[in-house]
Amino acid sequence: MDSFGEQSKNECGKLKKSSVLNVLCDMTLEKQVQKLKSDVEKNTELLNESQEFNKKIAEFISNISHELKTPLNVIFSAIQVLELYKDYTDEKYINKRNQYLEIMKQNCYRLMRLINNLLDVSKLDSGFIKLNLHNRNIVDVIEDITSSLAPYVESKGITLTFDTNVEEKILAVDSDKIERIVLNLLSNAVKFTPEKGKIYVAVQDEGDNVYIKVKDTGIGIPEDKLQIIFKRFGQVGGNYMNDSRGSGIGLYLVKSFVELHGGKISVESTLNEGSEFTIKLPARVIKEEYPGEDNCGSRKEQIGMEFPDIHYKV
Ligand code: ADP
């Protein structure tokens, strides 16, 4: 048997000497270089991410400041005008005063919406948002909110239609959150749909799931921005919509509220043709001894907050 260190014979019968060639190579240095390289790559990635994040924060602060300043400026100007009119008693001035009070109210709603949304984002981040679930007919919930908005939407020259394939479908939902979801989608649809456009809201019962759709014939969303809009502070940006900057929190909250219900939201859009948001909710019910109360009083306020400038342009 041939083995290391032993002697054996080759084909010619001569003695063959086995030997071992040791090639020792110090890998420590190479390994250290590789580790350093991968550390540099990781750190560069982290640096890029944090630079991107800082850029987003800077953009966000600039947008939020704009969003806070605009209504504040309007309220301040309205107060100055009211001061000028305060001693006049003719009907003409009383009407003007009422008009300015309305403008102030709507801009207060605008500020309240922004602040509420910011508070909700921080509550979501710290896990403090809990759903107040009750079994509700989802068709009624969506139809009610849609029809209460019909006069507002139609005053903008946009047709609003509601459709469903079922009369009743009971789901365990937090009605307040569902209303906020639909109001937010509708307010975006109104914001980005020109006069003579159409908005279509639908509830579809598909057995295990219920689909809620909000579709518009508005300006659409560029394909590469379709996922960004659901991210915190995610906005389309650019000049294609010059009337509003916004905070970019609305759809992030919508997505979070849908997910708290165990659902999913998706969007399809074509530039200059329109967008369609689809929410898929699992058809689940809960055991309830007593049907709970919804906070109905808050709807008017929610509508005011989501549609602060529906009657006029600042
Ligand atoms: P904000 O809270 O500032 O209103 P959102 O998160 O609701 O912002 O929306 C993010 C962005 O998505 C909007 O700034 C807009 O560019 C785009 N967007 C949302 N809905 C629509 C829509 N129906 N049509 C066109 N663009 C939309």
From TrEMBL:
A Pfam family per the record: HATPase_c
InterPro entries listed in its UniProt record: HATPase_C_sf (IPR036890), HATPase_dom (IPR003594), His_kinase_dom (IPR005467), HisK_dim/P_dom (IPR003661), HisK_dim/P_sf (IPR036097), Sig_transdc_His_kin-like_C (IPR004358)
PROSITE patterns registered for this protein in UniProt: HIS_KIN (PS50109)
CDD domains listed in its UniProt record: HATPase_EvgS-ArcB-TorS-like, HisKA
KW Lipid metabolism (keyword) present: no
EC number: 2.7.13.3
Enzyme class: transferase
Top-level taxon of origin: Bacteria
SMART domains named in the record: HATPase_c, HisKA
SUPFAM superfamilies: ATPase domain of HSP90 chaperone/DNA topoisomerase II/histidine kinase (SSF55874), Homodimeric domain of signal transducing histidine kinase (SSF47384)
A molecular function (GO) term: phosphorelay sensor kinase activity
Keywords: ATP-binding, Kinase, Nucleotide-binding, Phosphoprotein, Transferase, Two-component regulatory system
Protein's UniProt keywords contain Kinase: yes
Record Gene3D superfamilies: 1.10.287.130, Histidine kinase-like ATPase, C-terminal domain
Domain Histidine kinase: 63-285
Name listed for the protein in its UniProt record: histidine kinase
Organism lineage: Bacteria, Bacillati, Bacillota, Clostridia, Eubacteriales
Gene: pleC
